[in-house]
Amino acid sequence: MEFSVVILNQFVDHYPTIEWIDWKDDNSKQMKSEGDHWAKATLSGTDIWNCLDTHQIDPNHLVQWRPLNDTLHKVSLPSRGR
């Protein structure tokens, strides 16, 4: 499964092997916050937790995410399944 993963631009340097693009959706363009500079990448994983773990992304750096086949981004993570 592929995911759209969005982080704050200030954390891009933590993940030099990932190809990030500057990004902001229409809704967030209307907001003023520290999230005014966001970066997005498309990454794979069996679920969002596997995606973050596989690509070694700190969940605290995550602004929003969504499976590519969904239209809405999510701003919180599901409980980690064991």
- What coarse outline follows from CA principal-axis ratios? globular
Instruction: Give the overall average pLDDT.
Output: 88
Main beta-sheet annotation: 4 strands, antiparallel
Unreliable stretches (pLDDT < 50, length at least 5) are none
Q: State the share of residues found in helices, binned by percent.
A: under 10%
Counting DSSP E segments of at least 2 residues, the number of strands comes to 4
Discrete helix count: 1
**Which structural class fits the helix and strand makeup?**
mainly beta
CA radius of gyration is 12 Å
Distance between the termini: 19 Å
Order of helices and strands: EEEHE
Characterize the structure shown.
- The chain is mostly beta strands and 82 residues long.
- The protein starts with a strand and ends in a 15-residue tail after the last strand.
- The mean pLDDT is 88.
- It has 1 helix and 4 strands.
- It has a 4-stranded antiparallel beta sheet.
SSE layout:
Blueprint: E1 2-8, E2 21-23, E3 38-44, H1 48-54, E4 62-67
